[in-house]
Amino acid sequence: MEGAEPGVVPAVESTADDITEMRIRGAAAIADAAAGALETQAERSTADSPAAFEREIHAAAETLYETRPTAVSLPNALRYVLRGMDGDTVADLRSSTIARAQRFQRDLDQAQDRLGEIGANRLRDGDTVMTHCHSTDALACVEAALEAGKELAAIVKETRPRKQGHITARQLREWDVPVTLIADNAARRYLDRADHVLVGADSIAADGSVINKIGTSGLAVNARERGVPVMVAAQTIKLHPDTMTGHTVEIEMRSERELLADEERAAIVGGEATDGDAKGDATGSDADDPAPATDSGLTVENPAFDVTPPRYVDAIVTERGQFPPESIVTLMRELFGEPTDDPWED
Ligand SMILES: O=C(COP(=O)(O)O)[C@H](O)[C@H](O)COP(=O)(O)O
């Protein structure tokens, strides 16, 4: 990660890179890695005063925050760790930050297990679930149902352009679940065979909207039309506190190269295969790419997430129980209270 603040240890920069480049991906894994990175920052900091230590931790948090914009689990994780940083000496600040980060990671695992047990109650023996993308919260429900002795089958959507469906298929096959892998476009045809649509979330808004991998909203609309219930598995760190005050969730735009290779672009618009028109690096920023050589008239857009309105969602399953989407705001108020600031601010 370029331009990191002074004092930010290389391990934090490399975690930030891994998140940006999606070597670490999925909202829960991103939160876990971010907390782990703050722990490493605390351990390795060479700050010689409490103020310098706090500055470094805040700078590390900012470096991590700037990686991907949509999964609120990331700022929620950072905020949680920063709020636990306490003490008048570097030693106390260090140990409180480390303890808080470790507690976050432990709670995250436990919440996922609990959520899985709750979600599993919705799945009956012999059911078929249709999945989209790869969600560890969604898979926790499947795992708990299997552990309860239920037999399940899965229809797994490939999930273009990054094909996270392959990760889901691999996990399900490790658990011996029969998997039918389908192209995203085939989903409506295969909904006739599904008993549930089961997806995760990157953020849940106060009105119960679900922000998840691009294609979730179309799947949910089709599922409603086919009468298949849509179940969203999402730990409470996916609840987006800022949406209580009317903020919207930023949808990450990723590089056009995830959709279109330079050669393919050249084949469409003519000319040499150069990166001349390819705007955007993996973060959606165009800072590293040259300005378009010519205006080819071809624009490629690659949003990574979309918004599913609450009316297409049957249940949001959290570690605190399952909720109709319209009532999720009550849980948000209970957990977050008043609206919050940037995660590195007190
Ligand atoms: O949309 C994605 C991942 O998108 P990407 O691959 O772009 O990160 C997942 O459904 C959620 O993050 C939930 O995952 P989890 O339940 O594991 O938190």
UniProtKB/TrEMBL annotation:
One of its GO terms (biological process) is pentose catabolic process. Signal peptide: none annotated. Residues 281-296 have a biased composition (Low complexity). It catalyses: alpha-D-ribose 1,5-bisphosphate = D-ribulose 1,5-bisphosphate. Substrate binds at R25, G26, A27, A28, R68, N212, K213, K238. Its EC number is 5.3.1.29. The keyword Isomerase applies. The active site is at C133, D202. The keyword Isomerase applies. Keywords: Carbohydrate metabolism, Isomerase. Residues 270-309 are annotated as: Disordered. InterPro entries: IF-2B-related, IF_2B-like_C, Initiation_fac_2B_a/b/d, M1Pi_N, NagB/RpiA_transferase-like, R15Pi. One of its GO terms (molecular function) is ribose 1,5-bisphosphate isomerase activity. Transmembrane segments: none annotated. It comes from the Archaea. Belongs to the eIF-2B alpha/beta/delta subunits family. R15P isomerase subfamily. Catalyzes the isomerization of ribose 1,5-bisphosphate (R15P) to ribulose 1,5-bisphosphate (RuBP). Reaction proceeds via a cis-phosphoenolate intermediate. This is Ribose 1,5-bisphosphate isomerase.
